[in-house]
Amino acid sequence: MTHRLTRSHGGFMNTPTKRTPWHTACTVLCATVAVSGYAGAVGLIGGGLSFGPPIDARLPFGSLLVAGLALLGFVAVPMSVAAAAAARPGPYTSALVLAAGELLIAWIAVELTFIQTYSWLQPLYLVGAGVVVALAWLLARGTPRDRARCPDPVHSTSSQTSAGADELGRL
User: Closest by alpha carbon to 99, among 125, 121, 77, 69?
Assistant: First the structure.
C-alpha cells in the first residue's frame, strides 16, 4: 500500500491509496444519494414532480426548473464526485467526500427555509449526510495499521522518518 502526504487544516495527514471498507461504504452511500438527486432533478426539470401550487410558489423564482438545477448542482453532482473519489482513493478523497456531505446538509437547511414544509425524506437525508461526513473523517484518518506504518511527519523526529524535512519540502 502506498501513502500520500496531503496538507489538511494546517497539518499533514496520511491518505491511504488502498481501498478500505470505509471507501466501499462511502461509494455506495454517495452513489445512492447521487442517483436519487438525479431522479429528483429530472422530475423537477421535466415537470413530472411538483410540490403543489402553494409550495411551488415558495421556490426560488417560483420555478421548478431552478429547483431542479439547484438539486443537480448542490446534491447530485457533488455526491457523484464523492462516490467516484471514494471508489478510486487519492489524496483529495476525504476532502471531496466531506464537501459533498456538507453541501447536502446545507441543501436540506436551504430547502426547509424555502419550502417551509417537512417530509420524512429530510431527516433521512440529514442522517445520510452525517454518515457521509463521518466517513470523510474516517477516510482522512486511515486505518490504525496505516497510521502505525506511516507516522505523522509533523510530530515525529527526523530520526523517525528516513527523509525528514525532505518529505515535507523545505520548512
Answer: 77
